[in-house]
Amino acid sequence: MIRLGLTGSIGMGKSTTARMFADAGVPVHDSDAAVHALYAGRAAPLIEAAFPGTVREGVVDRALLGERVLGDAAELKRLEAIVHPLVAEEERAFIARAEAGGAPLVVLDIPLLFEIDALDRVDRVLVVTAPEKVQRERVLARPGMTEARFEAIRAKQVPDRVKRARADFIIDTSLGMDCARAKVADLISVLAPQAAGA
After folding, report:
1. What is the CATH number for 148?
2. Does 145 show up as a binding residue in the annotation?
3. Rounded to an integer, what distance in angstroms lies between the CA atom of residue 157 and that of residue 110?
4. Residue 41 assigned ligand-binding role
5. Do 134 and 191 fall into the same domain?
6. Does the annotation list 156 as a binding residue?
7. Which domain range does residue 39 map to?
């Protein structure tokens, strides 16, 4: 079974691309969704202990937590030390289920794949990209997003050009949905037979 790591900087179209794989029948593990579930479950008491006042009614308040850790490298590291091992555990369980089900290919949607040095968790890397102007427009259109917050997030991400240089595959999501969907279909046809024959 081939584990395809899907990554890309904020606003590059990663979630949309992940949905395209899922729609094509490829099992997808979404790290962000796993974090959301953990924030409402077993990570909440651990985060409350480390960052008092950031949990409301048993669920981590992402806005409050963001205020505490964004722009503070040490605090962010503390949070990651709690969350990343739990996400990796969920991911391993997902892979085991997919393998048991005979899936030839899975997609691991890991937003910070390069940033957390998770290359050992994947066999190939797909990077989604878009011109900076498109990225900025997409991100600033999000509710509650500010220029300062966008720049703070971007500052802690590996630059897009570096990600592209290290990728096995690239999809430019600014070329439209049909183009991206066709690229996804091409990738599946290249990777799934390899996996089936492994």
Report:
1. 3.40.50.300
2. no
3. 13
4. no
5. yes
6. no
7. 32-102
* Assigned token pair, 127: 């990077």
- 13 has binding-site annotation: yes
Given 55, 83, 102, the domain boundary residue is: 102
**Do both 115 and 197 map to the same domain?**
yes
pLDDT in tens, 34-93: 999 999 999 999 999 999 999 999 999 999 999 899 878 899 899 999 998 999 899 999
* Residue 175 CA: distances (Å) to CA of 83, 91, 130: 34, 31, 8
pLDDT in tens, 8-38: 999 999 999 999 999 999 999 998 899 999 9
Asked whether residue 87 falls in the same domain as residue 108, the answer is no
Whether residue 150 sits in one domain with residue 98: no
